[in-house]
Amino acid sequence: MNNNTFIPLQPSDGSEMEAYIAMPDKQGSYPGIILLQEAFGVNHHIRNVAERISGEGYVVIAPDLFHRTAKRIEIPYDDFSAAMPHYQAISKEGLTADLQASYDWLQQQENVVREKVGSIGFCLGGRVSFLANAILPLSAAVSYYGGGIQSLLDEAVNFHAPHLFFWGGQDKHIPQEQITSIISAVKEAGKEYINVEISYADHGFHCDERGSYNPEAAKEAWAMTLAFFQNKLK
């Protein structure tokens, strides 16, 4: 059996979604992770991240969040305009259904520790990971440079788990006042969080297939991400 593959899922709204699955090689019981894509699809990079996480001892599911407008579309990094129709078509209701379907799949796996599930997302996925922490009984959630989180600030009071945020200090897409409003909302809700701004990193610094990739920032943030998951999920 191939441990890394796409599987079909059916969210509660009746749509048909595929999700990429990455499993640890060895038999055992593992925490689950919902991995949430950038605006470019469940592409080579996101699948690679899924494999990196599964190699650390997690069962990973990466749902195709654009499935209502295109099936498993992969958009070039230099063509954000091609992503816009799909990006604009997603809704809180649709994302909620997709997250619930992904979580339910993890709950059904014999090798998943059911009460130990986390989420991680990048860019668009950073926003979706924020939503996931509010609607699912997670034990950990991570958002890398999540764009558009300020539209979900009223969800901070519903957080189930500590949330780890990463931002690039050189990011022109997410101004400082947005970051301040997001962290203030989480703080005022009395929820646990870690807020990390890497002053020398740009938007997308974690993705080694983008021009904004910063190897040092990526390595540092990833080490902290793994420590965070280790502490909260294992």
Brief sketch in words of this structure:
Helix 3 crosses helix 4.
Query: How far apart are the termini?
Result: 26 Å
CATH architecture: 3-Layer(aba) Sandwich
Name of the top-level CATH class: Alpha Beta
Unreliable stretches: none
Series of H and E elements: EEEHEHHEHEEHEH
Round the Cα radius of gyration to an integer and report it. 16 Å
The share of residues in extended strands comes to: 15-25%
Number of structural units classed as domains: 1
Q: Mean pLDDT, rounded to whole units?
A: 97
Structural class: alpha/beta
Q: What's the helix count?
A: 6
Explain what the structure shows.
- The chain is built from six helices and eight strands.
- The chain has an eight-stranded mixed beta sheet with strand order 1-2-4-3-5-6-7-8, sandwiched between helices.
- The protein is globular, with a radius of gyration of 16 Å.
- The protein is an alpha/beta fold and 234 residues long.
- It has one domain: Alpha/Beta hydrolase fold, catalytic domain (Rossmann fold).
- The chain starts with a strand and ends with a helix.
- α3 packs across α4.
- β5, α4 and β6 form a beta-alpha-beta unit.
